[in-house]
Structure formats: C-alpha cells, structure tokens
Specification:
Two copies of one chain form a homodimer.
Chain A (H helix, E strand, L loop, with lengths): L2 H4 L5 H9 L2 H11 L5 H8 L3 H13 L3 E7 L4 E6 L1 H4 L2 H14 L8 E5 L8 E5 L11 E5 L11
Antiparallel strand pairs in A: 1-2
Chain A binds a DNA duplex (30 and 30 nucleotides) through helix 4 and helix 5.
DNA sequence: CACCTTGAGTTCCAAAAGGGAACTTTGCTA
DNA sequence: TAGCAAAGTTCCCTTTTGGAACTCAAGGTG
C-alpha cells in the first residue's frame, strides 16, 4: 500500500492516519494545542527542519486542520491556528498523553498535569459512553459493520 | 531531532510517539484490536510488506505492547497478542476512529459502529473527567507543569 | 523418495522521505 | 548602507520504504 491510497480506505483509522499519522504532524499539533502559532516557534521548540515543517503545515492546512492567517501586513507574516476540525483532535492528543503518562513516564513523574476547568480538579482523561456515560474499555466494546463498511471482506 | 531521541524527551506525547507514532504501527494495532494475531494475516489485511511488518512487530514486542507466543510447536509458529499495556492503547485507537468518523467519513457513512456491552447501545466515545465525570473538550483543560517537567524551558 | 505447501521471516535493490545547512524574499531598524 | 527577522526554498547526502525473491523447518502427497 502507498500512503496516497490511505485516505481512500473504508476505515476511519486509515483516513485519520492519512492526515495525522506521522510523528512530526502529531508533535506540531501538540505545540498547536499549547498555543504555538508561528513557523519559527514550531521550529525552535521541536527541532524540526524547516522544509519538513513547511510541508507538514501545508498538509495540515490543506486538510482543514489548521488555517494560515496573516498576523501582520507589512511585511506579510502568517501564523497557523487550529480550526474546529483541528480542535476536535484534542481527544486524540489527550489519549496519547495519558498512555504515555501511564506507561512511559520517567522516574520524576508526569511532565504535565491537566486541570478540568469545570470542576477545578486535576484529572485523568477517561473514555466514556455517549449514551450511558459509563467507562469504556477494550473489552466493553463490540465492533459492528456500519453503512460505510466494505462489501464482502471484513476490513476495519 | 532523530527518532531515537524521542523516547527520552520529557513529554508523554513524544514518548508515546516513539512507540506508536508510525502509520504502520497504528494499523497493526488496529488489526490487533480486531483480534488479528498471525504474521500472514497482518500482511494480508494490511498489504504491508513482510520486512516492514517484521520490524514493527519486533519493536512492539520489545516495547511490551505485544507478546510473541507459540501457538504450535512442530513446526514452531508464533502469534502476536496485545499485552495489558497494549490494550491500554484502546482509548487512542477509539479517539482516532472517532475523529475519522466525524471528519473523514465517506458518503456511505461509518465503516464500523461500536456497541457498549454494559448498556447495549451504539455509542460514540466521549472524553470525560476522572473526577467529576463531566465532558472534557479542548477549552476545558488547563495545562500545568508536573513533577517531570523540564527545569527552565517549557516543553510539553 | 522427490516435490509441493505453509508460516514466518530475511535479503537485495531501487525509489522516496528525512536531516542539515545554506540561500531567498520582504520590509524594518541602526 | 548594513544588518536583522520571519517564513520559506533549495541542495545534497543518508536513512527508510516498497516490492519481490529467497530461506528455513516441518509436514503432506503421489
């Protein structure tokens, strides 16, 4: 399989990965959620080379995950911001961070903590069911074919 | 930055990505959650080349995300299964699928649906707060430095 | 017994992607 | 006039993929 075909697979994992399934892209998004907006600051904080960064930002913009908007006119300078579609990736980032906190934290503990503004407490993200609000773990889920499933073979 | 340094960064995103931040790795895990276990079946379902698959599986095993266990002795054959550490990636996969369902679904709709065994309903995954159980979105979260944060500079 | 099949890899080579560093462009500032 | 800053591009060389063929061990088949 070549990556240019990924976005056309009948699988939401594959389609999502066609947008964000790349280390640099996820790291760029991490910074974006921490309110980094400018080319040079992404470069400085990530240690990414400029031409890779330019490519990733261009892709994120073309996918509608970020927008490139001018923040000054003379000379023209642009910054990158998350769109609503990009903000929806928050759950993906939180899930990734949480797994790292559980399984990859160093001796000194977590690098970041999260406070829930609504209740004021430090918290861990928990996946729950939109219907009953109960916790959802791997064994609680049964996977069924949906309307967009491939015809005969079972692909996810 | 080279990838071999990623796992040593003081950031749970970076550390998680050092394990799963690769398209093929995530697709292998998707299949693993759908109960695929054998080398040939991963190959067939993903269209991945054999030597890339071998490398990814070896890495997942060395990270403790999967285990390689024999399922027959003569001739010796092995299969790959998720460990508890691997099963904990479920939230990451669910978050990725859900974003794809929201933003990348084709005209025919979702390829897969999820049923919550506990309540019996088809559901969407929702991220919630471990303390108050309320929904958590990007704007509800305040990020603070934790004990494992880098000294002076602020990196996530 | 000679040969074919299966599962799980490994090896080889050409093509694509990535890392590093220097160069470009536009206008501002000393 | 020179220097600087932000945001990219270009060039070149190294590393990683994709694709296909080859290996190995143990059965099964005629």
């Amino acid at each position: 399989m070549r990556w240019d075909r990924l976005g056309r697979e009948a699988c939401s994992v594959a389609r999502t990965l066609s947008v964000i399934g790349d280390r640099w892209t996820l790291l760029v998004l991490r910074e974006a959620f921490l309110r980094v907006r400018r080319f040079e600051e992404f470069e400085r904080r990530l240690g990414i080379t400029r031409h890779i960064l330019a490519g990733r930002l261009k892709q994120l913009v073309s996918e509608g995950v970020m927008v490139r908007i001018p923040y000054q006119v003379r000379p023209k300078r642009y910054e990158y911001r998350l769109t609503p579609k990009g903000l929806d990736l928050h759950m993906v980032l939180m899930a990734i961070v949480h797994w790292g906190d559980l399984h990859m934290a160093g001796a000194r503990g977590r690098p970041k903590l999260f406070k829930h503004r609504a209740c004021g407490h430090l918290f861990d993200p928990v996946l729950s069911c939109s219907v009953c609000r109960g916790t959802v773990t791997a064994r609680d889920v049964r996977v069924l074919d949906g309307p967009g499933a491939p015809e005969a073979a079972s692909e996810s």
